[in-house]
Every structure is written in C-alpha cells, then in structure tokens.
Amino acid sequence: KGQYDAATKTLTMTGDMRDPASGKLTETMQVWHYIDDKTRTFEIHSPGEDGTMFKMMEINYTRRAE
C-alpha cells in the first residue's frame, strides 16, 4: 500500500516482509524519492530492536548519459 506526494516527488509504501534473521513477518516501509529525470533514491525501513523504524538500505540510481 502506498501514496505518492507530488509536492516532494516521493512515493511511500508500507507492507510486510519476511525477516531474514527470524523468519517472522515484519512491517516494512519503502520510499522512492524522484529527484529529477535521471536520479532516483530507494530506501527500505524496518523496525529495530526498540520498535522504531530505521533505514536499513538505500540505493541511489542515476541514468547513464546517452
């Protein structure tokens, strides 16, 4: 499930994924930042030991010059 915010060019989605360490389902949040026509950032957030969400991964995409 998700929602796009046109003002910040950000798509935020939430859902469940299987935790690779415990094998249990856990909440996750995925965030796409559309910086410009050639640049994107993708983040995955997951709950830490205290239950607060933390960014566990970030990938920066840049389209190569044509």
SSE arrangement:
Elements: E1 2-5, E2 10-18, E3 25-36, E4 39-47, E5 53-62
Antiparallel strand pairs: 1-2, 2-3, 3-4, 4-5
What does this structure look like?
It contains no helices and five strands. With 66 residues, it is an all-beta fold. A five-stranded antiparallel sheet has the order 1-2-3-4-5, with no helix packed on it. Strand 4 (39-47) and strand 5 form a beta hairpin. The chain is elongated, with a radius of gyration of 14 Å.
Strand order of the largest sheet: 1-2-3-4-5
Give me the strand/helix succession.
EEEEE
Structural class: mainly beta
Shape: elongated
Mean pLDDT: 93
Distance between termini?
34 Å
Uncertain spans, ≥5 residues at pLDDT below 50? none
Rg is 14 Å
For the biggest sheet, the summary is: 5 strands, antiparallel
Can you count the beta strands?
5
The total of helices stands at: 0
Helix content: under 10%
Strand content: over 45%
